[in-house]
Amino acid sequence: MTVSPDLGTPAATSSGIVPTSIPAPAPVPLPAPPAVTAPFESTAFRAVFRRHAAGVAVITAAGARPAGFTATSLTSVSADPPLLSFGISSTGSAWPTIADAAHVGVHILGEHQEDVAATFARSGADRFAPPTAWGPGPYGVPLLEDVHVWLVARVLARIPAGDHRIVVAQAVAGAPGGDADRPLLYHHGRYNALRH
């Protein structure tokens, strides 16, 4: 049989005061959230994110014809393993090719490449026609020239998310660029350069 040790009465401190336990303060209630009377409208949601500055990337993939699109949703997910994600509209012209691709190209655009971003954002355009300079890269992925920062990534998952798909991919090759490379940004519906 196990007997708990008798801890006895707490010893007095040098001042003769016997310490006692102090009760924890009562939790402070959080304010009630505002009442939601209607769904948050998509126009208001888009207006919120127009104020969110984001880097600009072009995502490409090989298919019967090369496909690509401009993305501001590129995110680093994990360093070990090196995972990234991006969103793509499920009604966009590049989606059928991205949906079947085993690998994708990820190009982080520099501040001098606003024209490239505009080309790959333009609906109905032949995005790989001149003046776009590109060639086949690892795994046959179309890689844009004059891009200092690029990755080739193996697609791991395509996750439905509203009217988009979230693509998760693992980097397998790439060029990290240099400290002097300045990124192209997108903010309030316009392309911008980073200011110091």
Give the count of helical stretches: 3
Helix-strand string: HEEEEEHEHEEEEEE
Arithmetic mean pLDDT = 87
Largest sheet: 7 strands, antiparallel
> pLDDT under 50 segments (min length 5)?
none
Q: How far apart, in Å, are the first and last alpha carbons?
A: 72 Å
Give the CATH H-level superfamily. Electron Transport, Fmn-binding Protein, Chain A
**What proportion strand?**
35-45%
Give the structure's gist in a few sentences.
The protein has 196 residues and is mostly beta strands.
Structure description:
- The chain starts with 41 loop residues before the first helix and ends with a strand.
- 22% of the residues are buried.
- The chain has one domain (54-193): Pnp Oxidase, Chain A.
- The strands form 3 sheets. A 7-stranded antiparallel sheet has the order 3-2-6-9-10-5-4. Strands 1-11-12 form a 3-stranded antiparallel sheet, with no helix packed on it. The protein has a two-stranded antiparallel sheet with strand order 7-8.
- 12% of the residues lie in helices and 36% in strands.
- Strand 9 (149-161) and strand 10 (164-175) form a beta hairpin.
- With 196 residues, it is mainly β.
- It has 3 helices and 12 strands, in the order H-E-E-E-E-E-H-E-H-E-E-E-E-E-E.
- It is globular and about 75 Å long.
- The mean pLDDT is 87.
Features:
seven-stranded antiparallel sheet; globular; 196 residues
Topology:
Elements: H1 42-50, E1 54-55, E2 57-61, E3 67-71, E4 75-79, E5 82-89, H2 95-100, E6 103-108, H3 114-121, E7 134-136, E8 142-144, E9 149-161, E10 164-175, E11 184-187, E12 190-193
Antiparallel strand pairs: 1-11, 2-3, 2-6, 4-5, 5-10, 6-9, 7-8, 9-10, 11-12
